Amino acid sequence: MLRALNGRFQASQAHIEAYQRDGAVVLRQILTPQEVALLRAGIDANLARPSPRAKIASLPDDPGFFIEDFCCWQENDCYRRVIFESALAEAGARLMRSHTARLYHDHMLTKEAGTRQRTPWHQDQPYYNITGHQNCSFWIPVDPVSRAATLELVAGSHLGPWLMPRSFMDAQAKWFPEGSLADLPDIEADRARYRILGWELEPGDAVCFHMLTLHASAGVETGRRRRAFSVRLMGDDIRHAPRRWKTSPEFPGLIEELPIGAAMTHRLFPALWSAEAAAVEPRETKSEGDRARGSF
């Protein structure tokens, strides 16, 4: 773990090289205990009152329960504070080798104790409405996660190609037309063929991965829940790529406000960090209000 003189986490050159090479890296204790407590409170509030965008991702006969929710940062103050005030944005920008970091969206994923439902192997970016290579996702558990229940990733798969996105429950091609992209290989049938990354994690740790990195996770053990939160960031080269179909998550009406091929400069996607601003005004000198407002 590398920290600046002000105590904030800093991504090292080794982290950056691993991210660029493998498309995934573990960042130990990137969040402080206070930030973990804040995020845990935000997830629990979200679970108590899911948004209309929430999805149940497990079957009725599953002994556990898997729920996801999206794009809640504007209503959830705990989420907002972690997104705007923690070291995530600066670390993400450095890993992406980007001069800027802009929020794409947040994503809560909770598997209650004993959940059998796997999250199948997939890439994230084909479900989205963006193009470009400078992007990253943080996967941040607020509960201890065993190696058996952790996020797994195929090293180097972020280099392409794009693969067919399918619905998790019934494997339907609801995004790109059937046959327009190659299907995913059967990774589970030949795991030894791939360099699969995965780490046992403690609260405060995060896995940062590229939106094209193939990843999956198993269910969770009896007696252990797994509450996790993802923050997805966009770098300098990301552009709007509207689809003819509903993206996941969707951004209704965005095409009317943001042209095809435009930079993602919009109130839904606030700027979180820039090298230029950091050079002029060290982030720790900004007020909490300035950080929470962000900029477009």
How would you describe this structure in keywords?
296 residues; alpha+beta; Jelly Rolls; eight-stranded antiparallel β-sheet; four-stranded antiparallel β-sheet; 19% helix
Task: Note down, in words, how this protein is organized.
This protein has a single domain (13-276), classed as q2cbj1_9rhob like domain (Jelly Rolls). With 296 residues, the chain is α+β, with helices and mostly antiparallel strands. The model is unreliable at 283-289 (pLDDT under 50). It has helices at 13-22, 33-48, 77-85, 88-96, 275-280, 288-293; strands at 24-27, 55-56, 66-70, 100-111, 119-122, 130-131, 135-141, 151-154, 196-198, 206-209, 215-217, 226-234, 239-240, 271-274. The protein has six helices and 14 strands. The protein is globular. The protein starts with 12 loop residues before the first helix and ends with a helix. The longest helix has 16 residues, at 33-48. The strands form three sheets. Strands 1, 2, 3, 4, 7, 10, 12 and 14 form an eight-stranded antiparallel beta sheet that branches.
